[in-house]
Amino acid sequence: MLQVSYIRENKEEVLKRLSVKNFNQPELVEEIIHLDDLRKSTQAQADDLLAKSNAAAKQIGELMRTGKKDEAETIKAETSKSKEDIKKLQADLSGIEHELQQKLVQLPNLPHDSVPKGKTPEENEVVLSFGELPKLPEPALPHWELAAKYNLIDFELGVKIAGAGFPVYKGKGAKLQRALINFFLAEADQAGYEEMMVPHLVNEDSGFGTGQLPDKEGQMYHVGLDNLYLIPTAEVPVTNLYRDVILKEEDLPIKNCGYTPCFRREAGSYGAHVRGLNRLHQFDKVEIVQVVHPDHSYEVLEQMSSHVQSLLQKLGLPYRVLRLCGGDMSFTSALTYDMEVFSAAQERWLEVSSVSNFETFQSNRLKLRFKGKEGKTQLPHTLNGSALALPRILASILENYQTADGIKVPDCLVPYTGFDFIG
User: Fold this and answer.
1) Angle, vertex CA 325, rays to CA 382 and CA 127, nearest 5
2) CA-CA distance, 297 to 289, in Å (whole number)?
3) For a 10 Å CB count at each end of the chain, is N or C smaller?
4) Which of 130, 68, 97, 82 is nearest to 317 (CA)?
């Protein structure tokens, strides 16, 4: 959530940067500034009346102590209307603050200056490519056919149990899935991330804190009886560990990682590009999260991007890094890098990670602050990234590592699988 003070002081800059995200609602910005003016004037009136009321109460007490009861009663009668006025102003103030909050949460985060303009994924900027595209034996099979051929994943069993988008991993498929999770967690540990095991359900305050609510409630599974939400990513519970917390500057940076299943309704997703593991309602992911000093967040973003890239390099998967354009960015992000791996059998790029800097957008919603060495309280920057999401990584391994006789397991995973070949 943007800070009102920043919006007031930089209105034209805010409008300019929001337009990069194709968010063109100057009237909303004007309403926010107007409501803030109204909030300030109402607060000032209430404070003035309250000060006068407190002074009168002190005067009444003094008159009562000195036996001037009639004078005290006269002043008490005069101030009774002030109390009603104060009560009304406080009620008005509460309503104004609520309306201001409702308007503020409609504004997306401001994009970083380096974010390219654009409306579609085709306008994202390729900033890096790594690795050579594999040459597969003929006929190369897509991962869903390989999964059936080698009895690794049963999509139909998942449909029977829960519905489409909930696969059942079997035998070496399940072991390969577990190996990837353990490999990603071990690499995060070596990079200095502290592992957290967190709940897979969150309340509304947590969803609001990281920006999923009220923006993405339609994409989340809701447990109505308890008013809880199944997490779409570990970002939500891990970042919310620091909601309503005041840190010390020396606590920064905070580096956490966590493995969780992720649940997404993916409403409206259909077609050939959602087949197999390409798009699921439930999938596994290892997430990395950092809370950092504002002066260092873009340096940290590059470090997190490098960490994700190192995983792809160790897995031997060709990949590219995209800087997302304004129209393809999330509501909450200031700058996002997407990592895509090349699926040789499908002959297309698959997104496997997003690494984002949210600057103060989440910390403001979370009421997460840190106290600097001079004693001043500030908002830290929050960042997160997928390190990594499993379905499309597994799909790419199955497709890119297929041979005429079976599927080779990447060398870095063999210590975690206990086997080096699926055949």
Assistant:
1) 85
2) 12
3) C
4) 130
Contact 250, 275 (CB under 8 A): no
Q: Tokens 């399940």 appear where?
A: 174
Nearest CA-CA partner of 78 in 96, 52, 101, 97 = 52
pLDDT per residue as tens, the chain (423 positions) = 999 999 999 999 999 999 999 999 999 999 999 999 999 999 999 988 888 877 777 776 777 777 776 676 666 666 767 778 888 999 999 999 999 999 999 999 999 999 999 999 999 999 999 999 988 888 899 999 999 999 999 999 999 999 999 999 999 999 999 999 999 999 999 999 999 999 999 999 999 999 999 877 788 999 999 999 999 999 999 999 999 999 999 999 999 999 999 999 986 555 556 789 999 999 999 999 999 999 999 999 999 999 999 999 999 999 999 999 999 999 999 999 999 999 988 999 999 999 999 999 999 999 999 999 888 999 999 999 999 999 999 999 999 999 999 999 999 999 999 999 999
DSSP code string of 187-215: HHHHTTPEE----SEE-HHHHHHHT-TTT
Q: Which residues make beta-bridge pairs with 161? A: none
| CA–CA gap between residue 235 and residue 380 (Å, rounded) | 16
DSSP code, position 323: E
Contact 351, 343 (CB under 8 A): no
Count the Cβ atoms, other than its own, within 10 Å of residue 99. 15
Nearest Cα to Cα of residue 332 among 124, 19, 178, 109: 109
- What token pair was written down for 83? 């109390």
- Cβ atoms within 10 A of the Cβ of 284, count? 21
d(CA 96, CA 88): 12
| pTM flag (> 0.85) | yes
Helix (H, G, I), strand (E, B) or coil at 394: helix
3 state SS of 121? helix
Q: Is 344 helix (H, G, I), strand (E, B) or coil?
A: coil
Q: How far apart are CA 89 and CA 95, in angstroms?
A: 10
DSSP readout, 99-122? HHHHHHTTSPPPPPTTPPP-SSGG
